[in-house]
Amino acid sequence: MSLTPTYQPIIPRLKRESMLQMVKKGVRIDGRGFEDYRRIEIELNPVPKAEGSALVRLGNTMVMTGVKIELGEPYRDRPNEGVMQVHAEFVPLASPGFEPGPPDENAIETARVIDRCLREPRAIALDKLVIIPGRKVWIVFNDVYLLDFDGNVVDAGMLATMAALHTACLPSITGIDGDNVFIDKSKCSGRLPLNTSVVTVSIAKIGGYLLVDPCLDEEVVADAKITFGIDRDGRIVGIQKTGMSGFTQRELEDAVKLALKKSRELLELLEKVLKEAK
After folding, report:
1. What's the average model confidence in pLDDT over 99-106?
2. What is the pairing mode between strands 61-72 and 136-148?
């Protein structure tokens, strides 16, 4: 289950006005600069039984991604490609406003943003996941779980997803007999083939100011929020805008420049964590 508009936390008018006045003075509620991310921690392989996994703490927001790789059939219109599926779940323990049940529109939206940002630049080399063309391929299940909620789920989820995909291993194929493929999940035949890395950068607009990595209180009072998916080559591979207000052309240009700048920092952090784990 995820957060629906009904469960949005209520910010007292006095606190809302106080936050807006702070922003106008160049100060955020938690003391960060407008371009600063909260502290980021990335833990690799917290779930040993998954083919790959990662836990990301972004301030008080905590997201875990697990990757499972199974045998299956390709899509009929893509017989020479493996399959990728992204799901997201906001578990009840993450926030008092979350309830048990199927994912709502917010969890679905999070999964779709991550899915789009992976699919557009072909981050996963799906063409290398074919075992028997048109019949048997690897299916990559990427499951994102929100465990603690304090805003900016997408950026945390994208980092956790990318870290988990980088650690994911393909099960070993022990034999093929016709359409029957025999595998040994206890053995790894190699890393999941990836073409690039992708991160997202979310920016909130509050009173005409652009704030990177909004916490929950900032998301609630924001006029609008925009998220950019950016790959390792600096290409924008996805954009998602939420909120009732819009962005002027100048604000959008500034947001793009800011997102490109911060994406490099996130990618460097991801690469550092992966390198240290080798």
Report:
1. 77
2. antiparallel
